[in-house]
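Reading a protein record of the kind used here takes only a little practice. The record below shows the convention in full.

——
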Amino acid sequence: MGPLPLILLFIGLPLLAGLWLRRREAESGLVKLLLAFSGAFLLSVTVVHMLPELYEQGGHGIGPWVLAGFMLQVVLEFFSRGIEHGHVHVHAGHARTLPLMTLLSLCAHSFTEGLPFADEAVRANLPFVVGVLMHKAPMAIALATVLRRSDVTDGRYWTMIGVFAISLPIGMLVGIAGGDRLGGGFLEAALALAIGMLLHISTTIIFETTPDHRFDPKRFLTVLAGAGLAFLSMH
């Protein structure tokens, strides 16, 4: 897939979510199932396909970058309060401060995710592209929900949604510039960072969608469906 169609997809998805949620609340049960499905799909694509290929190309030296991405996500979630998982933990009393902190964390996350899409091979990997798109949907829903509950003005609402929407494409463009100047090693490190972040997020999503970590047949089947579809899409 070329850069332009991918940029349009990653910009359009948050804007559509923002438009849908400006006047209504997302159904929590449906969002949790979407989270479980997207988390399982993304985890399967990352572990079964992307990670082995990354180690084959970059060797064992790529491991520290994967770990760095995992730890970077831990730090980002201190500020975002886990909104990358599609969960909303922001209270209306913090309306004028927390949304901005959340936005900065989400943009840093999306920017890092966008870097490896500078590589044509990554853009051509349809399961990985779909997995990241499915991961962006709950993020956009959660951000729009936070802003809606915070009772911000229309201008502030759409500015924040728009900034979040362009953060991943900006990362992709920076990745293209960095890849041209620094070579393939830069893009391998960027992909390793993104994979480390996605490993953290996808595993956390699967655990958090089950209240009190109790067995839930519906969510268990949803996770199996996500993992199964990811496995089939890679063959």
